[in-house]
Amino acid sequence: MATRLPYPLTLTGDGLVLRDWRAEDLDDLVALLDDPDIARWTPMTSPFDPEAGLAYLKRAHQGRISGRRIQLAITEDGGRPLGEVLLFGVDAANREAELGYLVGARHRRRGLASASLSLLSTYARSTLKLGRLLLRIDPANVASTAVARRCGYRLTGEAPILQFGPYGSSSLDTWELSGDRAATRLERLKNVAARRYGRRS
Ligand SMILES: CC(C)(COP(=O)(O)OP(=O)(O)OC[C@H]1O[C@@H](n2cnc3c(N)ncnc32)[C@H](O)[C@@H]1OP(=O)(O)O)[C@@H](O)C(=O)NCCC(=O)NCCS
C-alpha cells in the first residue's frame, strides 16, 4: 500500500457519504462530541467545548494532509455530520491498521456506525490493500462490540490493552477483520444495508 493515505477522500455507499471534516463543522462537531458516552468510551476531552472542537479539527486536518490517518465525518448527503469514522496506526509492513467510530447520541441505533465501518473496512481492504483491520474495544461497551460483530470483526486472543484516560481506566480487547471471512461478511452486510435503504447494489 501507499505510505501516505489519500487526501481528500469521499466514500459513498449504503445511503451514506463519508467526507473530510470542514472548518464550518465546528458547531455540529461540538454538539456530537460533548456527550457522556463518548467521554466514557473514547479518549475525547470532556466537556468538549468549542476550544476543544477547534483543536480537534486542526489535528484532524494535520493528520489528513500528512497522510497519516483517514478521519471522515459520517453524513447522509455530504452535509451535516452525524458521527465520525477513522483509520489510523497503519503498519505498512504487516498491512494492518486500526479503525474507530462514534455516532452522535441523537443519531444512534439507525445502523450508521455499522454502515460506516463497513464502507471504510471495504475501502481499506480493496483499495488500500490492508490485510488485517483492528478495533480496540472495552468489553463493557455493548454498543461498540455489537457494531464490531455486525461488521464481521472477531475477538482475537490478544492480551487486553490497559488504557488510562482522564475519566478512569479501561481494558481494551482487540477485534480483527481478516481473510475471506471479511469479504463474505462485508458483502452480506452490504446486501442488508441495500435492502434497508430500499436499493439494490
Ligand atoms: C458505538 C456507537 C458508535 C454505535 O453507533 P450506532 O450508529 O448506534 O450503531 P448501529 O446503529 O450501527 O448499531 C449496530 C448494532 O449495535 C447494536 N447497538 C447499538 N447501540 C447499542 C446499545 N446501546 N446497546 C446494545 N446494542 C446496541 C444495534 O442494535 C445493532 O445491532 P444489530 O446488528 O443486532 O441490529 C455509538 O453508540 C457511540 O458513538 N458510542 C460512543 C462512542 C463509542 O463507544 N465509540 C466506539 C469506541 S470503541
UniProtKB/TrEMBL annotation:
GO molecular function (one): protein-N-terminal-alanine acetyltransferase activity
Gene3D superfamilies in the cross-refs: 3.40.630.30
Domain of life: Bacteria
InterPro entries per record: Acyl_CoA_acyltransferase (IPR016181), GNAT_dom (IPR000182), Ribosomal_N-acetyltransferase (IPR051908)
Record-annotated N-acetyltransferase domain positions: 16-191
GO cellular component, one term: cytoplasm
Signal peptide: none
Matching Pfam families: Acetyltransf_3
PANTHER family in the record: ACETYLTRANSFERASE, RIBOSOMAL-PROTEIN-SERINE ACETYLTRANSFERASE
Protein name as annotated: N-acetyltransferase domain-containing protein
